[in-house]
Amino acid sequence: MPTQLLLIEDDVQIRNNLTEILTLQGYEVEAASSGHEGLECAQSNRPDLILCDVMMPQIDGYQVLEAIRTDSSLSAIPFIFLTAKADSTDIRFGMNLGADDYLTKPFTSDDLISTIESRLKHRQYWIPPKTPSVSYLTSLRGSNCWGSMTLNTADCLYFFIQERGCYVLHPKGTFRVDGSIEELATHLSPILFFRVNRKEIIHRSVIQRYTYWEKGKYCLFLTISGQDKEVILPRARYRPFLDWLKF
């Protein structure tokens, strides 16, 4: 099956030229003339890679990228910006949002193809980390003002540090648990749980969406036992977070 590319470009001549070049290279290209149309195309027909112009009316390339990266079904798709803006600040901003590469206009067809092939190759050879053959915690002891009880770790939703103690939000309530966040991060299943930052660990099921916040940080929007919560994901944890979502 040919590799499917989504091209989002509002300039009709550039869009047609790139579509022709890529089609001749054997790619299957779906072209969109706006950011809004591009997002609809990505959601209805998930591509293997996205090429997107930066400067577009209504929804620009940055907004498209942010929407892609905050959609768990699309977030792992390689994303390449096509731009006439070669300023390092603009490039840094796009990379902080999660862009995989930049092509500065005008670029040659060789540059275009090699960049696409490089990103596809990187995606092809990415291998999810293997789960070590160790036994992870299946239960832990939690206590609160009503007493203590054994909790199934798979049902634990959110671990956090508060007043030097480690706590967990569970469908049965909030409990204090023994051990540190570091110890829990080591002994909890890496498929179910992710350590967001120094003080918080989340269960996969609580994630609703995430978005760029500021200074390279991201905000995760969670729903825990019917309550909405926001946590900050540092820039250094963003790529590991995307890789974890692929499990």
UniProtKB/TrEMBL annotation:
SUPFAM superfamilies registered for this protein in UniProt: CheY-like
Domain called Response regulatory: residue spans: 4-120
Modified residues (4-aspartylphosphate): D53
Keyword DNA-binding: yes
Domain of life (superkingdom): Bacteria
Keywords from the named record: DNA-binding, Phosphoprotein, Transcription, Transcription regulation, Two-component regulatory system
Pfam families: LytTR, Response_reg
Name of the molecule in the record: CheY-like chemotaxis protein
Species, as recorded: Spirosoma utsteinense
